[in-house]
């Protein structure tokens, strides 16, 4: 039997030393058994409330560091010359290490010292976050011009239109010399370090959430456990929003803020060559995780089960919840050490198995669970929803930058302050509807279907909210052909322009963009100094009507005013999709056998990682790459994309989202059809015995009538 809940005097029957440390003077008769000060010191680490607080902060910090890369994905692409497919694969590698080890959490369960293992995992997450910053420190300072990085004025001259005879003889030399074997090895090392760090980030996160939830559920009062878990999830859900907020702040700072060149830089955050301090956010997040990990090394392996229900929760339960039967109360107050009589599920028999036996049994139990049609369809619908969320979370900032000409900082601010809060509201609303309306499986399926349907309808206008790519001199706007440079206008024939340079200027009167001032035929440069920032202009441009001046930087999009309506529709769609989270989860819990619930939830999260969170960023990144019309070249290999076909980018990115939403809607429709069929079958089964019973009663009544008439 577990520790009993009774009068104050009965608490002396618990001989546990840890419990005595928790019991204060008021909890002992007469106040005589006052613990000494040494026993009072560790008492805070024997409180499940303090564990909930620590675990909420740790999961918040963990999700912040996990989601931070998504907020700076376009910046990392520009800094290290990565394609969207490679950056999507990098974002997905967080799930590789996690998926490889998450299955064994069911095996180890309470065998290990869970708080200490959570602490070790958090330390590994911290090291992974620090490792993500190493590429910044081992790489050379960022040069937004490819020519002669040692001399800044020469950079400016190299971008100008110089006659062939006056062009420096060594102009192409830096580009060739930069393609040394050392440079290629350094690039491979940088990419390898980031992939390793992302894998370690996933491995470190394996024990944090499962062991934390099970620890809370084991040692909290049975009535307080749902409240504690609700607080935990509510705080945790703020992690991605804080990641985008942190990204918005960090990307306003220049990438080499720790090693600024003499004389400063002439870039602004709106310049397409701007690279923010992406690495600084990883250091801040890693430091937060390290601080949150410290208390876990002081929590015990097992703590006394919480004895008292929270007073305000008792009042709420008395009003809203039905009375709990004695049988349920007794079963729910069973101590963690006690096991139920039946051990049918894998979660119950796992402690009696060796690792080899567990690995052999797991596939058979998983296949048995997957044969359940409701479970399979719910998981498939969640795979579609998670694929949509993974692609949107990874590449929505980049999409906003390209489609609406906003800065990376502003794009992250919109997502962190608008989309993620509304998604959290959607999850909460879905849970409230299930709780207050006491929705059964049929109504849960209907709620999921309506949420997916309205989410799909809201995404339809997004196809038309955007505009075409403005004209770029010398760029072919047909990605189906060979992307690259065409013949430049004849106005630049007298110039010797580097083919690998990227320093765009915009002729705003004609809405034409040029790759460099040289390609616009500009022969001189003027800097307008201002108190807050300096603006660079180029003059004497032979390709521009009137000769200029033309400002440095890309042309602004004609659809910049549509970014807020676009984000409002995206955020409302995210809220409606999030409404389906809790009811779909309840369909799984109510649709499988009681002994298989734990395993079913584990299989659900594993399949979501394997089928959604791992491939979806790569799929979205590959689709984005197919819309590129001009690739930068680095040492003969394709690097970052400078220009996209905006119409094609919008149609393919939003089209992928539409495809996954349609798949989720179809799965929920099938679920509803199956549930209705099951209800009909149960109704017919119930009517057949009733009709037989009525016939028996009629027959018995007919026999009794003569007897009664005789009387």
Automatic annotation (TrEMBL):
* Membrane association type: Multi-pass membrane protein
Give the UniProt keywords, A-Z.
Cell membrane, Disulfide bond, Ion transport, Membrane, Transmembrane, Transmembrane helix, Transport
Q: What GO terms describe the biological role, i.e. biological process, of this protein? A: monoatomic ion transport; sodium-independent organic anion transport
Q: Is Membrane found in the keyword set?
A: yes
Q: Which branch of life, at top level?
A: Eukaryota
TM spans (from-to): 89-110, 117-138, 185-206, 227-255, 275-299, 374-396, 408-434, 446-466, 562-587, 599-616, 653-675
InterPro entries (UniProt xref): Kazal_dom, MFS_trans_sf, OATP
- What is the protein name for this chain? Solute carrier organic anion transporter family member
Q: What is the lineage of its organism?
A: Eukaryota, Metazoa, Chordata, Craniata, Vertebrata
Gene assigned in the entry? SLCO2B1
């Amino acid at each position: 039997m577990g520790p009993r809940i009774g009068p104050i005097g009965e608490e002396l029957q618990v001989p546990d030393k840890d419990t005595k440390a928790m019991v204060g003077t008021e909890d002992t008769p007469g106040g005589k058994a006052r613990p000494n000060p040494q026993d009072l010191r560790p008492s805070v680490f024997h409180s499940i409330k303090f564990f909930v607080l620590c675990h909420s902060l740790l999961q918040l910090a963990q999700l912040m560091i996990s989601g931070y890369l998504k907020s700076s994905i376009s910046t990392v692409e520009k800094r290290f010359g990565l394609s969207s497919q490679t950056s999507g694969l990098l974002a997905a590698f967080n799930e590789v290490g996690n998926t490889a080890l998450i299955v064994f959490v069911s095996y180890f369960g309470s065998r290990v010292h869970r708080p200490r293992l959570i602490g070790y995992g958090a330390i590994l997450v911290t090291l992974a976050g620090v490792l993500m910053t190493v590429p910044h420190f081992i790489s050379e300072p960022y040069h937004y011009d490819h020519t002669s990085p040692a001399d800044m004025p020469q950079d400016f001259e190299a971008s100008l239109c110089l006659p062939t005879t006056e062009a420096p003889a060594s102009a192409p030399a830096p580009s060739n010399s930069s393609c040394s074997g050392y440079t290629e090895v350094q690039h491979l090392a940088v990419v390898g370090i980031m992939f390793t760090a992302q894998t370690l980030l996933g491995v470190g996160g394996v024990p944090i959430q499962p062991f934390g939830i099970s620890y809370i559920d084991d040692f909290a009062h049975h009535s307080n456990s749902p409240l504690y878990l609700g607080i935990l999830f509510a705080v945790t859900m703020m992690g991605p929003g804080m990641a985008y907020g942190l990204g918005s702040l960090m990307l306003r700072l220049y990438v080499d803020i720790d090693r600024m060149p003499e004389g400063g830089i002439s870039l602004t955050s709106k310049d397409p060559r701007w690279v923010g301090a992406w690495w600084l956010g990883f250091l801040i997040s890693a430091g937060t995780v390290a601080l949150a990990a410290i208390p876990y090394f002081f929590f015990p392996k097992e703590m006394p089960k919480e004895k008292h229900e929270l007073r305000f929760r008792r009042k709420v339960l008395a009003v809203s919840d039905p009375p709990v039967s004695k049988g349920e109360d007794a079963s729910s107050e069973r101590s963690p050490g006690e096991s139920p009589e039946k051990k049918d599920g894998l979660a119950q028999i796992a402690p009696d198995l060796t690792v080899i036996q567990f690995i052999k049994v797991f596939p058979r139990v998983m296949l048995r669970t997957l044969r359940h049609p409701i479970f399979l369809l719910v998981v498939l619908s969640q795979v579609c929803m998670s694929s949509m969320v993974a692609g949107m979370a990874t590449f929505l900032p980049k999409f906003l930058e390209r489609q609406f000409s906003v800065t990376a900082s502003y794009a992250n601010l919109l997502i962190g302050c608008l989309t993620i809060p509304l998604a959290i509201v959607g999850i909460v609303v879905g849970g409230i509807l299930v709780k207050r309306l006491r929705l059964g499986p049929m109504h849960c399926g209907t709620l999921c279907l309506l949420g997916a349907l309205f989410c799909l309808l809201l995404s339809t206008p997004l196809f038309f909210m955007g505009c075409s790519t403005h004209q770029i001199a010398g760029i072919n706007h047909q990605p189906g052909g060979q992307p690259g440079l065409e013949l430049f206008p004849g106005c630049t024939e007298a110039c010797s322009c580097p083919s690998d340079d990227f320093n765009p200027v915009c002729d705003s009167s004609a809405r034409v963009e040029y790759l460099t001032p040289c390609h616009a035929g500009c022969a001189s440069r003027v800097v307008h100094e201002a108190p807050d920032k300096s603006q660079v202009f180029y003059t004497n441009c032979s390709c521009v009507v009137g000769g200029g001046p033309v400002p440095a930087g890309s042309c602004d999009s004609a659809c910049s005013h549509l970014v807020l309506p676009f984000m409002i529709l995206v955020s409302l769609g995210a809220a409606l999709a999030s409404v389906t989270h809790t009811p779909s989860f309840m369909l799984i819990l109510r649709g499988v056998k009681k002994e298989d619930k734990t395993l079913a939830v584990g299989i659900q999260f594993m399949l979501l990682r394997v089928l959604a969170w791992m491939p979806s960023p790569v799929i979205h990144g590959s689709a984005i790459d197919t819309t590129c019309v001009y690739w930068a070249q680095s040492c003969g290999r394709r690097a970052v994309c400078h220009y996209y076909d905006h119409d094609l980018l919008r149609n393919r990115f939003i089209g992928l989202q539409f495809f996954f939403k349609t798949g989720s809607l179809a799965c929920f429709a099938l679920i509803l059809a199956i549930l209705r069929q099951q209800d009909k079958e149960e109704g017919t089964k119930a009517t057949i015995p009733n009709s037989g019973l009525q016939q028996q009663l009629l027959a018995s009544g007919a026999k009794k009538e003569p007897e009664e008439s005789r009387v």
